[in-house]
Amino acid sequence: MISGSGGGQDGGREFTADSLEAVLREACRTAELDPDGAELLRLGSNAVYRLSASPVIVRVARDHDALEEMERAVRVARWLEAEDLPATRVPAGVTQPLMVGGRVVTFWESVQEHEEYGTVGGAGRSAPSAALARRA
Fold this sequence. Notes:
Layout: E1 9-10, E2 13-14, H1 17-30, E3 39-43, E4 46-50, E5 56-61, H2 67-82, E6 98-100, E7 103-109, H3 120-123, H4 127-135
């Protein structure tokens, strides 16, 4: 299921599931990963895909200015792994981040079988707040 919003414009370039298909395929080809059957999990400030052929999450940033931030995130993830600290890992042997079609693409090891993304509306519905709402 797709969480978030999509379909907006980004500097004159669409950021939609259809427009990102070629970006996903090219990035996966470069990283020697199979994009067939990839599931779009979220489309918002980033597009997030789960690959079906391997336990990998692909993140495509809407803004090309995210390159420096994603370089830092990958460096930190690799450092945490080298220090044997618990953190989300990046796949070994994959050079990243990639720039594909003006988009920043990163790859992350999936830590669970099904990634779940909450919505802003759902974030406010904790057990305590739901109980208070029932009492009112």
